Fold Dihydropyrimidinase.
Amino acid sequence: MSRTVITGGLVVTAADEIHADVLVEDGRVAALAAHGSDAAAGWRAGAATLDATGKYVIPGGVDVHTHMELPFGGTFASDTFETGTRAAAWGGTTTIVDFAVQKQGQALREGLDAWHAKADAQCAVDYGFHMILSDVNEHTLKEMDGLVEEGVTSFKMFMAYPGVFYSDDGRILRAMQRAAGNGGLIMMHAENGIAIDVLVEQALQAGRTDPRHHGEVRKVLLEAEATHRAIQLARVAGSPLYVVHVSAEEAVAELAQARDAGLPVFGETCPQYLFLSTDNLAEPDFEGAKYVCSTPLRPREHQAALWRGLRTDDLQVVSTDHCPFCFTDQKELGRGDFSRIPNGLPGVENRMDLLHQAVLDGHLTRRRWIDIACATPARMFGLYPRKGTIAPGSDADIVIYDPEARQTLSAATHHMNVDYSAYEGKEITGRVETVLSRGETVLAGREFTGRTGHGQYVPRGTCQFL
Ligand SMILES: NC(=O)NCCC(=O)O
Ligand SMILES: [Zn+2]
Ligand SMILES: [Zn+2]
């Protein structure tokens, strides 16, 4: 039996902060006991010891929105499952849930098989899948039931990207009705893509081709309208709803109103909307392309509403929407036409640190940091308490976090396979020091000790908030 004791740290979970040693046995958390207690002293014989004195001992991060190798705009997201999950480990994230893609005309099964082929035996940390539904028909609807049974319990749909991932309201309603019956959770990209495409065409015709126009045509009102519509469709279907990458204050207001009415409606935002803004999209010399994602970055004034939503639980999760494209040869595809810039930002390595900085900046409490980054995403997507907490029986996915270390985020030092950092030069207090994934050390004092293929596929249960 393998035994490790993590000594001397402050264990922070979504529920508690306790000065405790943690006993790990055979990849699971076996027990917690007060520092210096007889129980903790008794664990040490024959066990490896990790000293966490002066550090936090936190659950590994759970990032429920990543896109490794996503095909988009004629290219592919630049992180593979191998490079992306290694970067996740460096950043203290020990579980990702990525989006398998059903292409138009494909069965869900084909899309899911393709994602397993990309990910299996490649990952450094554990992984699960959502399914992107882009072709809703009788066959697909039946397939949804089987997927829920086997642990793919959430389905992303798009009100944006006509001709690619887009579904009309009828298809969305049908999928929601099916989810209402089978326990699945519909995740919505809520932007009115049909209206946005009109504005894109008009902007390009008028010669407004720079990256900043990506933000201007993807209007706040069109995010709020789509969020409202998605909520009403879910109500009609009697299904829960999870709105992804919420960026606009007005969209948060729609979620808040629905939640105040007692509806099972949930929302996620991402670090880019909390820390970046349209100022970045307006950077000269095409540098703004680095910040093109959808929903788009918003004027800085929206950030206060997102932070408030996270505090008041109108938003429940912060995930990354990690979808990296290199600046030099991929974002470049949209020079002279912002609509051809591949959409997405890198971030899987940065989330835990940025949110720790948010604790220091007074936006969140320490426990809320762990709640929105670990516990609630795990609960939302049927992984709790195996993931997202440190409790007897949980997987020993544990991070020793140094809350006082200083670091500067940079492409020169990050591990994501992308040639820029969206947070270049940002100073952060706090850094991941050591990471265990199911009890195995994958990062030891800032040295990568993990391995390709350690990460296991995790079938998931249904949403645990229903
Ligand atoms: N968000 C983004 O810009 N790219 C990834 C695809 C999506 O999540 O819509
Ligand atoms: Zn999306
Ligand atoms: Zn996404």
